Amino acid sequence: MDSAEGDFVWANGSTTALGDVAEVIDAWRSGVLLAPLRERFPFIEFSKMAEGYECGEPAETAWGILLADDNRISHRQMLAALRSNSRLSGMFPFFSHDVLRLAIDPFKRDAGEICIEPQGNGRFSVQSSSGGEILADVELADLADTASSFFDSRGELRS
Q1: Which residues have a Cβ under 8 Å from the Cβ of 109 and sit 6 or more positions away?
Q2: Rounded to whole angstroms, how far apart are CA atoms 159 and 31?
Q3: What is the DSSP string of 102-158?
Q4: Distance (Å, whole) CA 144 – CA 157
Q5: Contact 86/117 with Cβ under 8 angstroms?
């Protein structure tokens, strides 16, 4: 079951029972939530991120997933510092090519994002998605405040 917005897959599964497929579609269209859907149709699988979208907390869910990811241990200090900032904690975090991206809207690429890349020397570069220019080169202690300064009070990237 794909999202009408973006490339997000809400749930998937397989069965050879065509009747079950029709019932899943009907239940999903009628608004049955993911957990009850899986209870009724055990072949349905979904992720923590799908649950986060469903409950209206995709950013909070994504932060939690990243902070718990054992493959991101080397990034935990950076992630925790950024998440503790009230402005940045509402941004949608994800990694692409080992660069952390903080997106304003996970489904709208043109909404803007900033990119944070560890430099390996205890410093981090902060870049704008719009121009790609380096906006700042900072230490971890200043990273969250610096990164949040590039967003206005409405959560939009400053020009």
Answers
A1: 103
A2: 40
A3: EES-TT-GGG-EEEEEE-SSSEEEEEETTT--EEEEEEHHHHHHHHHTTB-TTSPBP
A4: 15
A5: no
DSSP state of 32: -
Rounded-to-integer distance, Cα 34 and Cα 1, Å: 11
Question: Where do we find the tokens 């020009």?
Answer: 159
Model confidence pLDDT, tens digit, residues 76-112: 999 999 999 999 999 999 998 889 999 988 877 777 8
Residues 6+ apart with CB under 8 A from 126: 114, 115, 116, 134, 135, 136, 137, 138, 143, 146, 147, 150
**Vertex 141 angle, CA 136 and 145, to 5°:** 55
With a CB cutoff of 8 Å and minimum separation 6, the contacts of 96 are: none
Angle, helices 76-83 vs 58-68, to 10°: value is 150
The H or E element that residue 93 is part of is strand 92-96
Statement: the pTM of the whole predicted model exceeds 0.70: yes
Torsion of CA 7, 11, 12, 15, to 10 degrees: -150
